[in-house]
Amino acid sequence: MLTNELLAMLENLKNFEKLITLLLIGMMVIVVALSVFELGWILYKDIMTPPVLLLEIDELFEIFGFFLMVLIGLELIETMKEYLISGKIRLHVIFAVALIAISRKVIILEPEKYDSLTLIGIAVIILSLVIGYKIVKSLEYSTKTTSHDHADG
Q: What is the pLDDT of residues 16-37, one digit of tens each?
């Protein structure tokens, strides 16, 4: 049986976790906001550089990479918010963030700078993340339907 002191300590720990999570969310909001401004500045600068309104391939890669970085930040905020509210981390969101991050790397990747084994390694990472994502989503779905079925029965 838990003593009152232990319960108080666990409650203090939970409050500490919430405080840290709130601080992380606040800092991530600042980072995402600054990233959006930076993305806007890069887009403006690239559009206004002659030839005006035309973007070079390397500029497009930079913009897409930055855009995906902002999306990663938003997903991390959502994950931390979910943790703050429910105390649980949705594992499929972690896989989604990892997939977005690796996609960002692939988009800005210059394949000629890497040997074939490195590129195969990146492909294996992507495949592993996709398989992991599908497994986690199917487990979450089967858990939802099973608990829903028990609630009805």
A: 999 999 999 999 999 999 999 9
3-state SS, the chain, equals CCCHHHHHHHHHHHHHHHHHHHHHHHHHHHHHHHHHHHHHHHHHHHHHCCCCCCCCHHHHHHHHHHHHHHHHHHHHHHHHHHHHHHCCCCHHHHHHHHHHHHHHHHHHCCHHHCCHHHHHHHHHHHHHHHHHHHHHHHHHHHHHHHHHHHHHC
- pLDDT for 150 equals 55
Distances (CA, A) of 79 to 3, 69, 132, 139: 33, 15, 18, 19
Domain-located, residue 103: yes
Residue 65 placed within a domain: yes
Q: Per the structure block, which two tokens stand in for 131?
A: 């398989």
Domain hosting residue 86, numbered range = 9-152
Environment class of 141 (CB within 10 Å of its CB; exposed 0-12, middle 13-18, buried 19+): exposed
Q: Among 43, 140, 128, which residue's Cα sits nearest to residue 88?
A: 140
CA distance 51 to 56: 9
